[in-house]
Amino acid sequence: GLPTLAVVGATGAVGTVMLSLLSTRQNVWGEIRLIASERSAGKRLKVRGEEVEVVAITEQAFDGVDVAMFDVPDEVSAHWAPIAAAKGAVVVDNSGAFRMDPEVPLVVPEVNAEAARNRPKGIISNPNCTTLSMIVAMGALHHRYELEQLVVASYQAASGAGQEGIDALYDQLMKVAGNRELGTTPGDVRRVIGNALGPFPAPLVMNVVPWAGSLKDDGWSSEELKVRNESRKILNLPGLKVSATCVRVPVITTHSLSVHARFAREVDVEEAREVLRDAPGVILFDNPAEGEFPTPADVVGTDPTWVGRLRKSLDDPQALELFVCGDNLRKGAALNTAQIAEVVAKEFAAAAG
Ligand code: 2RA
């Protein structure tokens, strides 16, 4: 029969998108079991047109599970993913708990699908949404020109911080709506928002906030280090030079990045266009004369990585500038996890003959 899938963390922002993806993608699963914290157990959620009751996470909940997708906080994954793996499930984990573990592959099917086969711990990691929002396009260009350096700035959506990020931005929008004086004196937005900052360190509405994640050494944010470390691992370029500045913007869903990419060889912009046009999972949408470039408002809810504003650097014949957008809850999280799980499901199908 078809493999049994468990969705762990079915009730969160990513879990919700996951259930809708599982309902619309080609069905490769037998039973789909929904697992969440004790608090959410008993809830009934719709997947593939049927209501399924959420069960609380326990060791027994993984009985008979072939593939388990985890979308839960790092510490919950760190505890439960090895338990699910010990019970024989292949775990596809979207937390940060295992991404840099040398015995856990970090997989983006369009870039390094074959890495998924080598999983000594029975765990495969799904990258962070910011890395994922650009890496499919960068993988395609790397293939042609050999990437040496990335300098990126991100424009990250509120939903990257989960449902509380979404709620905070909508609440803040309500507080500023209709006030045509705001945004003219220092601190006026902050005063209107009061303590409704949600998970962000400054007002997000009518603002941009140069911060995502937690503080690490020498002033870097955890998010910026993730972009560096994960890009290196996915592209198998341990010496790749990466500088990232991660910024939160008042967008509900879809991360954007401005990328300066330097290669080992001189680039040809027409050829680079062709590479991107031919790359699976990438859409080149780049005609500024007609006002055509990707924006989060147009990209949200879609699967591909959208690329626009492609230019050859004026002062470096080996570098390209580009702007990319990707839905952080789809390709940035649920979709990539589903794609990895489908790669594993194919192994089951092949083994079953
Ligand atoms: C964010 N990448 O956007 C992060 C966490 N998923 O906040």
UniProtKB/TrEMBL annotation:
Give residue ranges for domain Semialdehyde dehydrogenase NAD-binding.
4-119
Reaction equation(s) it catalyzes:
L-aspartate 4-semialdehyde + phosphate + NADP(+) = 4-phospho-L-aspartate + NADPH + H(+)
Where are the membrane-spanning stretches? Answer: 5-24
* EC code(s) of this entry: 1.2.1.11
Q: Which domain of life is it from?
A: Bacteria
List of residues binding substrate: Q156, R248
Q: Which Pfam families match?
A: Semialdhyde_dh (PF01118), Semialdhyde_dhC (PF02774)
Alphabetically, the GO molecular function entries are: aspartate-semialdehyde dehydrogenase activity; NAD binding; NADP binding; protein dimerization activity
| InterPro entries registered for this protein in UniProt | Asp_semialdehyde_DH, Asp_semialdehyde_DH_beta, NAD(P)-bd_dom_sf, Semialdehyde_DH_NAD-bd, Semialdhyde_DH_dimer_dom
Specify the pathway.
Answer: Amino-acid biosynthesis; L-methionine biosynthesis via de novo pathway; L-homoserine from L-aspartate: step 2/3; Amino-acid biosynthesis; L-threonine biosynthesis; L-threonine from L-aspartate: step 2/5; Amino-acid biosynthesis; L-lysine biosynthesis via DAP pathway; (S)-tetrahydrodipicolinate from L-aspartate: step 2/4
GO BP terms: namely: 'de novo' L-methionine biosynthetic process; diaminopimelate biosynthetic process; isoleucine biosynthetic process; lysine biosynthetic process via diaminopimelate; threonine biosynthetic process
Keyword line: Amino-acid biosynthesis, Diaminopimelate biosynthesis, Lysine biosynthesis, Membrane, Methionine biosynthesis, NADP, Oxidoreductase, Threonine biosynthesis, Transmembrane, Transmembrane helix
Q: Give binding positions for phosphate.
A: R99
Q: Which residues form the active site?
A: C129, H255
| Signal peptide residues on this chain, from the entry's feature table | none
Query: Where is NADP(+) annotated to bind?
Result: T11, G12, A13, V14, R39, S40, S159, G160, N328
Report the Gene3D superfamilies cross-referenced here. Answer: Dihydrodipicolinate Reductase, domain 2 (3.30.360.10), NAD(P)-binding Rossmann-like Domain (3.40.50.720)
NCBIfam families attached to this UniProt entry: asd_B, PRK14874.1
Q: Which HAMAP family did the record assign?
A: ASADH (MF_02121)
Q: What is annotated about its quaternary structure and interactions?
A: Homodimer.
Could you say which protein family the record assigns here?
Belongs to the aspartate-semialdehyde dehydrogenase family.
The UniProt function text for this chain reads: Catalyzes the NADPH-dependent formation of L-aspartate-semialdehyde (L-ASA) by the reductive dephosphorylation of L-aspartyl-4-phosphate.
Recorded hits in PANTHER family, A to Z, give: ASPARTATE-SEMIALDEHYDE DEHYDROGENASE, DEHYDROGENASE, PUTATIVE-RELATED
Name of the protein described by the UniProt record: Aspartate-semialdehyde dehydrogenase
